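REQUEST ID: PR-0412
SUBMITTED BY: lab tech R.K.
PRIORITY: routine
TASK: structure prediction, single protein chain
INPUT:
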Amino acid sequence: MRERGCSRVSSCILTNYMTPRPFDVAVIGGGPAGMMAAGRAAEQGAHVVLIEKNPSLGKKLLITGGGRCNILNAEFDTHALVAKYGRKGKSLFSTFSQLDASATIEFFQSRGIPTALLHKVSEPRSPNIREYLEQKRIDLVINIPSHTSSQEQTDGYYIRRLATDHGISLITNVQLAKRLVEALAQENPEKLECIAWPQLLEI
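STATUS: complete
OUTPUT:
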């Protein structure tokens, strides 16, 4: 749901939404924190409405990790993670302590989303994204080229190159990636029929 014709949520009139009973919780803002709060409240049995002014939820997720939408930091030691933020890191200690990297992985896995920590191609540590691609342990790579730094270009280039060399499906266009996600959300991937490329062209 979204509000129309306004710049402040408090002054908006919500339209095009019918509900049989009042909401228990209203979450203002469909960013990462808002989506998590709304989802958690719903899990606890609350009737929740999530209000967002943008056409889609999670817009700010697109700018994390240089556009790659990283879901967590690879540092599992909360003290070491906070230290990376300098003097301002102390204010984040409580938050990271409640939902650290391990808890984040558990959150996704408990919802049927397999999650693995992989180091960058340029990092000589294992497990590494290069190993997974070379062993064909990844079926699809979505890697949108970015130009924020030379290092990200290097890692992104090698990821795309490895995917291509090993015959792994690769998507490099953000609009195509969105359409694929939307299509998969409407179907059960486990029940989709595999069709050979020549047959697909005849459809």
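NOTES: Strands lie at 25-28, 48-51, 140-142, 169-171.
REVIEWED BY: pending
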